[in-house]
Amino acid sequence: MTYSTQMEAAKAGIVTPEMKTVAHDEGIDVEVLRARVAAGTAAIPANRNHRNLHASGVGEGLRTKINVNLGISGDMRDYDCEMQKVDVALKFGAEAIMDLSNYGKTHDFRRALIEKSPAMIGTVPMYDAVGYLEKDLAHITADDFMDVVRAHAEEGVDFVTIHAGLNRKAIDSFKRSGRKMNIVSRGGSLIYAWMEMTGNENPFFEHYDELLEILREYDVTISLGDALRPGCLADATDAGQVGELIELGLLTTRAWERDVQVMIEGPGHMALSEIAANMQIEKRLCHNAPFYVLGPLVTDIAPGYDHITSAIGGAVAAASGADFLCYVTPAEHLRLPSVEDVKEGVIASRIAAHAADIAKGIPGARDWDDRMAAARQRLDWPAMFDEAIDREKAEAYVASTKPADPRTCTMCGAMCSVRTMNRAMNGEGVSLL
């Protein structure tokens, strides 16, 4: 039997090569994974035209995955630099890369990215519409938007963010909620402006069935974007955000009926105390579809350090049910990130994801930590470097100072507790002189 999408295959009892890859990588039974894909609680974004994809799964019982955003803007147009960011993202284990380029003709870069990357690739077609079509926003038609989605699907994009939930009903809730930061989603703000200028319904909502047919044809996963995600703590969990989430839940079931895989996007900025409840609300309203969160950022006052505020929120979110973390860099709210910013953001997000996987009891998650603990107990520096999430940084720190005993570090030196206990438990004398 032939199949169009991973979900269609899963519903028919077919185990695809991508399912086998994910099951092997995750250490789970492939039939368990197939059942989750069939139910929509796990997704395997895998466009049939992304030839060198190493499939990854997102969702129930799977490791928390990391996405890296990159791409040019009107002010920063260095594609070579963006490819360096791709290299960093892949080096530090990101499972997904989103090309958020929003200036000029971006298809050459996107095609090169898809050809290069074994990580899944995502885009926001709305960003590309103006440059791709060479039309100003108010003159773009609903058919035009669909043409851009089709172009991205044909090129091999594995998932697309579509802000289909921002319909007239959701906008009414937003307008009445009196937000401090209005709409901070770039795609959401563009859709809102288009709707206001044209007087039309959201084209992605009005023509949702046509959109799904395009995605089904190439097996593109729809990442239902949260246009009304909070952009500051004051706007978190308001009527606009929750109202849109209800719409996303309804759109989820419509996609599943057509065998299109779904992820749901979430906040945003949010107080630490609200995160767990938001994860539960999403899972309830969106039928346990995989949840993809930006942060959440747990405070608004740390520009230059938002990779840290994001990692704090991301760890809590993932431990409470989120499945996919979009990294945040130190440059968030300030500028297009540099290559070093990307590295800092990926590592912070991976730490958050791994900490959450340990808390959730994901099989094998703590094995990594146990290997590091064993290496530290032996004072085996090469083995510690092997397990370090950033080997180069760990080695550079150790090499930057010279302890009297090279088996220790300059923090404790002769008073190293590990050294002391190893000697004492071996019946050896402990001298501090």
Offer a quick outline of the entry:
The chain is built from 19 helices and 10 strands. By secondary structure, it is α/β, with parallel strands linked by helices.
Describe this entry's structure for a reader.
This protein folds into two domains: 6-360, Alpha-Beta Barrel (TIM Barrel), CATH 3.20.20; 366-426, no CATH class. The protein has 19 helices and ten strands. It has helices at residues 6-11, 17-26, 30-39, 79-91, 107-116, 125-133, 142-155, 168-177, 186-198, 203-206, 208-218, 239-257, 272-285, 306-319, 339-360, 367-377, 381-387, 391-399, 417-425; strands spanning 42-43, 58-59, 65-70, 96-99, 120-123, 159-162, 221-224, 262-266, 291-294, 324-326. The strands form two sheets. An eight-stranded parallel beta barrel has the order 3-4-5-6-7-8-9-10, surrounded by nine helices. Strand 7, helix 12 (239-257) and strand 8 form a beta-alpha-beta unit. Helix 6 packs across helix 7 (142-155). The radius of gyration is 23 Å and the shape is globular. The termini are far apart. Belongs to the ThiC family. It is an enzyme of class 4 (lyase). [4Fe-4S] cluster binds at residues 409, 412, 416.
From the spread of the alpha carbons, the general shape counts as: globular
Spatial order of strands in the largest sheet:
3-4-5-6-7-8-9-10
How many β-strand runs? 10
How would you name the CATH homologous superfamily of the largest domain? Radical SAM ThiC family, central domain
Which architecture of the largest domain would the CATH scheme give at its second level? Alpha-Beta Barrel
Give the class from helix and strand content and strand pairing.
alpha/beta
Secondary structure: helix percent:
40-55%
